[in-house]
Amino acid sequence: MQQVDMDIDLDAVRAVRVLGRGAMGTVFLVADGAGGPYALKVFDKRGPVSAAAREAGDAVRRARWEVSVLSGLAHPHLPTLLGHAETADLLASAVPYCSGGDLNELRYAQPDRVFSPAAIRFYVAELVSALAELHAAGIAYRDLKPENVLIRADGHVTLTDFDLCRLLPPKSPSASTSTSSSCSATSSPPPQLHGQGRSQYGGQLRRIFARSESSVAATLTSSSTSGQDSHNLAWFLKRSDGGADLLKKAKSARVSPLSHGKKKASFFSAASGGARERSFSFVGTQEYVAPEVVRGEGHEFAVDWWALGVLVYEMAYGKTPFRGRSRKETFRNVMLREPEFTADSRRRWSDLTDLITRLLDKHPAKRLGFAGGADEVRAHPFFAGVAWDLLGELSRPPYIPPPTDDIVECEGFSVVDYFNKLHEPPPQPEEFTEFSPEF
């Protein structure tokens, strides 16, 4: 991924269209002749903030925190911060445009709205690689769901939306990890970013966690075996409710093309000291929230492995495993019910169902990934044949979005004017000075 430090002048930015809106900003597609199209996420400091975002903390601080996190990322399956800017009213960050939409849209475009095991293996391997990088840097993502997995122009995936992530002290690293850079993190709070105009956040996050220059690509091979090395990261996930749909039987990793994409909301929480820090904040999408979060217990990186289990189940069965008719019922299912599998799927895809079951262990300490981190997940038999060091280089992705040649430089519309118009007072009703006597 190219890293470009763009000098963003918000007054001059003209967008092609709105890609999505969420509690923490509006995302625009901007056609830039020099570096190609990019996605510009803009947070309006004057705008209304959702109740969830308000409860989570200061929205402006969280928006700055997301920019700080982005500035420290350098990995094939994590977004590259191309540039950022801040004015008295707006805070913006630019990342590469992902023309393939999100994983949820892609799933809905599939027959029976499910992926084949081969396609699941491809996408989940890249997500494991991304989570390994974040965890090694001491970051718990805490918002993994299909809508936050974007499909790049080359067909590979990247995560988006980092305002819910939490900085935690990483576990002592093992000898090596095949897909993540060597990282360390302090237990000091995230940086408090201030100031108007174009803000330079990049170096501040890099002071929080030192990174090596290495980053990894990723892809599948039909012959090589997954590494069995063991890494010491850990943390929590999620579990339960039922849903027995048919797994797609095709062995091919090819998937059907799709149409559009989405976006989401978020949270920020400061990290305090402690060798084994845990977060007690309630964050995440309810169908992906881990049992320990529902119980109000402290949680760590294992919440991401739980969410991965929910995501894998949804990719295979077309629905999440614990969804209830209400929020309360969903949480009850998360706490008490086990994921349901068809007898046929257990027989035909035993490695896949075992992976889901182990990721959705309600006890964080027993969950896959708790004791051995990402390496423990990578060593699962479902990933046999994955060349972790070569993800993105050997195999053709299941779906490659069509070229975006139609996104050409055009007049577009002013991003600043877009927000200014939202704050214009509504037109006043006409005043009636006289009434008809016949009325």
TrEMBL record:
The keyword ATP-binding applies. Pfam families: Pkinase (PF00069). InterPro entries: Prot_kinase_dom, Protein_kinase_ATP_BS, Ser/Thr_kinase_AS. GO terms for molecular function: ATP binding; protein serine/threonine kinase activity. SMART domains: S_TKc. It is an enzyme of class 2 (transferase). It comes from the Eukaryota. Residues 173-187 have a biased composition (Low complexity). The keyword Ligase does not apply. It catalyses: L-threonyl-[protein] + ATP = O-phospho-L-threonyl-[protein] + ADP + H(+); L-seryl-[protein] + ATP = O-phospho-L-seryl-[protein] + ADP + H(+). Its EC number is 2.7.11.1. Keywords: ATP-binding, Kinase, Nucleotide-binding, Serine/threonine-protein kinase, Transferase. ATP binds at K41. Residues 13-383 form the Protein kinase domain. Residues 173-199 are annotated as: Disordered. Belongs to the protein kinase superfamily. AGC Ser/Thr protein kinase family. This is non-specific serine/threonine protein kinase.
